[in-house]
Amino acid sequence: MPAEWDKHEATWLGWPHNATDWPGKLDAIRWVYGEIVRKIAPGETVRMLVASPRERELAARYLSRAGAPLERVEFVLHPTNRGWTRDSGPIFVRRRRPRRETAIVHFHFNAWARYPDWRKDRRVPETAAALLGKRLFHARAGGRAFVLEGGGIEVNGRGTLLTTEECYLSPRKQARNPGLGRQGFEIALRENLGVSNIFWLGAGIAGDDTHGHVDDLCRFVNPNTLVLIRENNPRDANYRPLAENWERIQDLRLEDGSRPEVIALPMPAPLHFDGERLPASYANFYIANAAVVVPTFNDPNDRAALGILGELFHPRPVVGIHAVDLVLGFGTLHCLTQQQPAA
Q1: Confidence of residue 243 (pLDDT cuts 50, 70, 90)
Q2: Is 16 helix (H, G, I), strand (E, B) or coil?
Q3: Which among 12, 209, 247, 318 could disulfide-bond with 330, CB atoms 3.0 to 4.6 Å apart, if both were Cys?
Q4: b/e map of 279-308 (b: 16 or more CB within 10 Å)?
Q5: How do the domains of the chain map onto residue ranges?
């Protein structure tokens, strides 16, 4: 699996339509999508999943009024349950010999083993493979379908993969692959993604309905550097689990045995809706060809996070996108996007 900063052919998105994800805010979210596409499309094609020709026309109107270049947007007719394309969309792998090609691995999305509506989303990789003429590999583990989400893994493109015990080793809560232990899970990762080096962090952040996705927590910014979020308030629910992850990360060695550089990324102040904690995190950025888009939350730490990431990704522009409404759906920019690497 290539690193996210490797050159993309396209970014996949799913047009927002499920009002239960963003109660009372669906129209505002459509404008946020316009801003996302406006920042990504100058560097690559945007492949937008839409349910029907009518929804395609609606999306085109919003994107056009937001100033997004429609000539860089390819609408793909495929109905979805939700728009969290990081988890339900096509996950690409690449090989260089005997000839360069990319293929898609189907990880049998099941709505994070939490929600009942996932059957339309599960078929997205099949639609992508047919559209692009790519080979489709069905992920297997222990003789059955292997379930994995793109937000639950983080790779450096050289063989190292990060994930969390909370997400994939919990035996009872949101168990994606019941009965599959650590060893079986690691074998499946190696067989289906071509990784050689797997490192487990502990728990994810408070408010994450995926039960511990790593893309809100820890991200590679180049093959040997990563950012890990840090909470400095001892009274915050994230303080202890994040402190434990900082202890764990000291043991991380990369695929070549070297120790990575680990840089702290701050957290915004807690955000709540209807009494529920929301998973607001600057780690949920997305690395596109033309820019790195970073969620911002009208918080004093917005500037600090953008500054840290701006230095790490220089000369690639780092831009903030307002995500206070977006995070009502329990995810932001990385959760919505899925990269299609160039062959």
Answers
A1: very high
A2: coil
A3: 209
A4: bbbbbbbbbbbebbbbbbbebebbeebbeb
A5: 8-341
24: enclosing H helix or E strand: none
Taking 90 as the threshold, does the pLDDT of residue 142 lie above it?
no
Catalytic residue (one of 49, 155, 335, 336)? 335
- Rounded to 5 degrees, what angle do the CA atoms 323, 112, 336 make? 30
Maximum Cα–Cα distance across the chain: 55
Buried b (16+ CB within 10 A) or exposed e, 78-110: bbbbbbbbbbbbbbbbbeeeeeeebbbbbbbbb
The whole-angstrom separation of Cα 164 and Cα 241 is: 11
- How is residue 269 written in tokens? 């102040």
Does residue 97 surpass a pLDDT of 90?
no
State the fold for domain 8-341.
L-arginine/glycine Amidinotransferase; Chain A (3.75.10)
Q: What's the CA gap between 13 and 94, in Å, rounded?
A: 21
Asked if 335 is an active-site residue, the reply is yes
Cα(133)–Cα(131) distance, rounded to whole angstroms? 6
